Amino acid sequence: MTTPPFLSLRDAMARHVRDGMTVALEGFTHLIPFAAGHELIRQHRADLTLVRMTPDLIYDQMIGMGCAAKLVFSWGGNPGVGSLHRLRDAVEHQWPRPLALDEHSHAGLAVRYTAGASGLPFGVLKGYTGTDLVTANKSQIATITCPFTGDVLTALPALTPDVTILHAPQADREGNVLLRGIVGACREAAQAARVLVVTVEEVVDQLDAPMNAFVIPAWQVAAIAVVPGGAYPSYAHGYYARDNAFYLAWDDIARDRARFTEWMTTHVLETATHAEFLQRVGAVA
Amino acid sequence: MTAYTPDEMMTVAAARRLTNGAVCFVGIGLPSAACNLARLTHAPDLVLIYESGTVGTRPTVLPLSIGDGELAETARSVIPLPEVFTHYLQRGRVDVGFLGGAQIDRFGNLNSTVIGPYDTPTVRLPGAGGAPEIATHVRELLIVMKQTARTFVDQLDFRTTAGFLDGGDARSRAGLPGGGPRAVITNLGELTPDPGTRELVLSAIFMGVTVDDVRAACGWPLRVADTVARIVPPTTIELQTLRALQDRTREAHAHRVRITLPT
Q1: Per-10-residue mean pLDDT, chain B, length 263
Q2: A130:B162 CB<8 A
Q3: What global pTM score does this model have?
Q4: A106 with B88: CB under 8 angstroms?
Q5: Residues 201-220, chain A: which have Cβ within 8 Å of B?
């Protein structure tokens, strides 16, 4: 058993994420690795290809701070609220820099991760038929004929991120990681990655894991950083709830370039750690 | 009779379309409100699946996002997202899907991607999400949208989601397994597809709305059924249930979260 190193968040990001890489910060509404994303912003990472099914606020922030050259995604809104204004500004006005898009549906991006996790060059689904996505993103969407039935299916290239970053409730001292609750495509994104880095709420002696639980074995994990509150304003089930009020408030903050930049400077660039960020944003009890 | 808003009428009309026991793929916003209203009134055994992987969920407050903890806590099971789309949706285990969009055309095709050209949009919308495959696979698709001449358009800027494509048998020729749009519920009434041409036809209107109102709020020359039904206004129970649900929801979403950090 190889135990991955337990690093500070700063060291974990600095060691594994470099400019120009393809990076997936997964977690579907739940367990979004906000602390890791903020640390990448603090380290001024640039030219990243960012992969996420739902870019959410964390990619809105990374895009607005100029970290991303390209976005691979399937739904880019603030759930239940409206637009991601920084994503929109980047696509509509190339601010702060142009952003290339590799756009899919949820079903399609899930297939791409699954193919990557399975060691296959592509995945198939019954989908995309009759949509303009097929022409808008034609280098990444094709058809293939089933050799057994003759059915025409949609084929999508595998996704194999250089680094996948997840936030999880627990790791044990050997570095095995437990996920639970809504997991989205975390399992597939983890297995598809060349390198997996995980932030966790806490380290425990014994994982609270029933037999069929979603446990990532220690030998698949490159580094672990213990970051309590690391998913905030997303959530970690059993630890803290999604801060829906913050998601609602983000709409105003992100709408204006100057207000966004000032907010990011005050809350992210000028804080050294996630704990300081949580204090400054008023999320600490 | 209690006064009600067009949004409430829309939600109630959508809820009434759901039959007890159906398996329903739920989107956030009005579809989520309608599905839970149906579950709390005439359809207690409605099976709600949210794309976050919560299957058979029974939230007491409406989620703001598609993956709030409330959905996981009240679900029969919580499964990985790829499985929702493959083992449930693609396998044909979902009866009803619920979608909206920024634009719809006369054959029930939807745009939720861009206004303007794809590469240089004037408005970049959120994009596809689960919509294309929900519309591909469900037995019946319900569409809920506010109707204006800007949203009910002659020509979509982008086809994110296939309804009946160019009409007639175009959908089945393209090999799309699901049944396609069954009804479009708006703030003015309901449109349903003609069984032959598949063009949307105005078939029912809400109280206080005229056929001319609906025609004026449509970007193509709207066909009107020989007999246009009047939709019964929300009952007291429907309204009370919906408002209580939305009050609980507002209360739940207003609170900032506070985290206790380890010392």
Answers
A1: 88 96 90 94 96 93 84 93 97 96 97 98 97 97 96 98 98 97 97 98 97 98 98 96 94 88 84
A2: yes
A3: 0.96
A4: no
A5: 202
